[in-house]
Amino acid sequence: MTQKDNKNNMSFHFQHPLKTKPVIADFDAYADVEGRYPRTIGNDYMLPSGLRRLFEFGVMTVEADERALFMFERRHGFTKLRFRLLDIAAEIATQEELLATYLTYHENRYPDIAANWLLSQGFIKSHTMQRHSAAKVTGILSTEGVERASAEEAYAELCRHFSFIEADLSCRELFEGALCVRSSLGKPLGMLYMGQTLSIAVAAEARGKGVGQRLYRAYAAYMLLNNNKTVFHEWIHPDNIASIKMFSHLGFSADKVFTDCYVKS
User: Fold this and answer.
1) Is residue 70 within 8 Å of 82, Cβ to Cβ?
2) Which helix (H) or strand (E) holds 128?
3) Interval 108-152: pLDDT, tens
4) CATH code: domain of residue 154
5) Judgement on whether residues 68 and 153 belong to the same structural domain of the protein
6) What is the count of structural domains for the chain?
7) Is the pTM above the cut of 0.85?
8) Nearest 5 degrees, angle CA 261-CA 155-CA 30?
């Protein structure tokens, strides 16, 4: 790819321009195309292994041309959008579902061009989350008393607590293996889903009793089995005092990175 740049305008073109906007449904093909796009503006925060799973489940497709790379993650009821813009003239393909997308930024480097472009495309800002990070999760890390839930049970439980935009409700099969704490009668008191994003749901009668911390310490124990140098990052709504307090007890502190959710009605 070559680049032409001046003080007032920046344009990009490829040595072999794409004549049409191809639809890509294979992860390896996506990875090949992605390399042609600079990381000027983007919000594809997922790890490659997570993206590969979504392609394998058939819920992720990609459209690309000389101006933009769009990644569509089709969920139940709406489509989640990730994108990279080469200029502000790109357009979103017509979709029947609601679109949701995130802009991630450092507090001193707000992505004005991307935000203004989303507003011009009919998006409205829904909510903001701040990243909290921990090099080490405090407390005793143990999976004792925490079990795996079925995909159907985890999906149903998380749907009662989260909207489709807030949680990673892609397809039910991805929920297999969510962590669960149960009452003596077998009722789920808390559920932690370890997907593309992490979601914790605690039943009203169990809140304030350490169920969320118990679930997260079990999650951290599983993560450290695979990589004992794991650094943990979680996104929390700034006004979610209960979650901020819980993660503070777990050794997390807020950093200067935020993400804004935009939805298209």
Assistant:
1) yes
2) strand 123-134
3) 888 888 898 899 888 999 999 999 999 999 999 999 999 999 888
4) 3.40.630.30
5) no
6) 2
7) no
8) 55
